């Protein structure tokens, strides 16, 4: 009983290990399906797309939100009972979508998780009068809508909307925590140069990213989308350059945040290139956003939150550093694979590295999730 209470005492405890383990198991299944070794279910392509966007990511988001919201609002964390129900709903969705991805009951269960998450988050924000973060709950609702479009209307439009919304969300949250944590670390060490405060460059980058996402959804792969994505690439790169990333290179858990944010600029660059030039595919842009930005940013946020909220030093072990490096290298191999004459070895190597890194993260997270705060 005591272990159960501990496990449900914070949202990061059930969601972070489960999210990482799920990602680490889902990718090898997809690789095996792609290689025609096994067929995990009736629609492996749909399952792969859906489960990485609306299976893995929502678990990481829920863990982050319900861990961060008590800090934002000064309200108590989500109680064990609703947390257990929410986690069970997520798990039921994964089981349903694996066993019968085309069945309506499975889809309904899977589609219920994000609205439930958004409602619970909005309840806490409204109770605390925390209007600044209403936008986060709004994006979660929109992400739920994109899932419904994917499942019941147009899969391509839904997936594009999912990527666009996630790009906006990561630009917002990553742009808040990355310079803040770096500033605190550098200030504590008496550094003369600190990350630039929020200003015009940040506003332009956020607007450019939002415009890229909107154009991608509404206009598709039009030249207009390509031009806006190009502007967003430069804006994101300029924004990142003002955060003193090289100055924190000796602290892997900080430097990894800068590297993860860099994947956003890589993703918009590949999106622009896939539209405005030859030789670059949309799949490369999608995997730069997915395996690159989403994978690495959620991993570093989960790891930092696990350490900090469990009372452990927020400092990387050699195991953590290797895990993060494998994750980035796996994403990079998948993105460049489409430039190879035979991309298959890159698919396998990239997917294996990325999945192994996620399983390593789950192994790191689970003992923390079931032990009391230090």
Shape descriptor: globular
Mean pLDDT: 95
Share of β-strand residues: under 5%
Rg over CA atoms: 20 Å
CATH topology: Cytochrome C Oxidase, Chain A
Strand tally is 0
Tell me what you see in this structure:
The chain is mostly helical and 374 residues long. It has helices at 2-7, 12-34, 44-73, 80-99, 104-128, 134-152, 155-188, 200-219, 223-241, 252-276, 282-309, 318-336, 344-369. It has a single domain (2-369), classed as Cytochrome C Oxidase, Chain A (Up-down Bundle). The longest helix has 34 residues, at 155-188. The radius of gyration is 20 Å and the shape is globular. The two termini are 19 Å apart. The mean pLDDT is 95.
Features:
374 residues; mainly alpha; Cytochrome C Oxidase, Chain A; 0% strand
Describe the protein's topology:
Blueprint: H1 2-7, H2 12-34, H3 44-73, H4 80-99, H5 104-128, H6 134-152, H7 155-188, H8 200-219, H9 223-241, H10 252-276, H11 282-309, H12 318-336, H13 344-369
Quick recap of the structure?
With 374 residues, the chain is mainly α.
């Amino acid at each position: 009983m005591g272990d159960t209470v501990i496990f449900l005492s914070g949202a990061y405890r059930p969601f972070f290990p489960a999210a990482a383990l799920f990602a680490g198991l889902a990718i090898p299944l997809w690789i095996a399906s792609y290689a025609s070794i096994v067929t995990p279910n009736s629609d492996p392509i749909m399952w792969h797309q859906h489960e990485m966007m609306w299976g893995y990511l929502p678990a990481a988001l829920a863990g982050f939100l319900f861990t961060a919201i008590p800090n934002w609002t000064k309200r108590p964390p989500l109680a064990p009972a609703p947390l257990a129900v929410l986690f069970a709903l997520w798990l039921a969705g994964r089981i349903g979508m694996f066993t019968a991805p085309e069945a309506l009951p499975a889809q309904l269960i899977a589609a219920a998780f994000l609205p439930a998450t958004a409602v619970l988050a909005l309840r806490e924000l409204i109770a605390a009068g925390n209007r600044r973060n209403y936008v986060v709950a709004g994006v979660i609702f929109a992400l739920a809508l994109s899932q419904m479009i994917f499942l019941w209307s147009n899969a391509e439009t839904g997936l594009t909307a999912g990527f666009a919304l996630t790009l906006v969300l990561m630009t917002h949250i990553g742009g808040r925590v990355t310079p803040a944590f770096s500033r605190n670390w550098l200030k504590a060490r008496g550094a003369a140069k600190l990350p630039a405060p929020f200003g015009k460059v940040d506003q332009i980058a956020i607007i450019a990213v939002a415009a890229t996402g909107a154009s991608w959804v509404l206009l598709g792969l039009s030249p207009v989308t390509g031009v806006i994505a190009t502007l967003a690439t430069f804006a994101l790169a300029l924004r990142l350059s003002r955060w003193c990333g090289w100055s924190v290179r000796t602290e892997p858990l900080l430097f990894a945040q800068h590297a993860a944010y860099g994947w956003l600029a890589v993703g918009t660059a590949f999106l622009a290139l896939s539209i405005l030039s030859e030789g670059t595919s949309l799949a490369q842009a999608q995997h730069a956003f997915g395996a690159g930005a989403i994978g690495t940013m959620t991993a570093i946020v989960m790891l930092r939150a696990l350490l900090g909220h469990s009372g452990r030093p927020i400092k990387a072990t050699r195991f953590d550093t290797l895990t993060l490096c494998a994750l980035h290298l796996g994403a990079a191999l998948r993105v460049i694979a489409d430039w190879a004459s035979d991309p298959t070895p890159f698919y396998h190597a990239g997917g294996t590295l990325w999945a192994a890194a996620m399983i390593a993260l789950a192994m790191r997270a689970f003992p923390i999730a079931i032990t009391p705060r230090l």
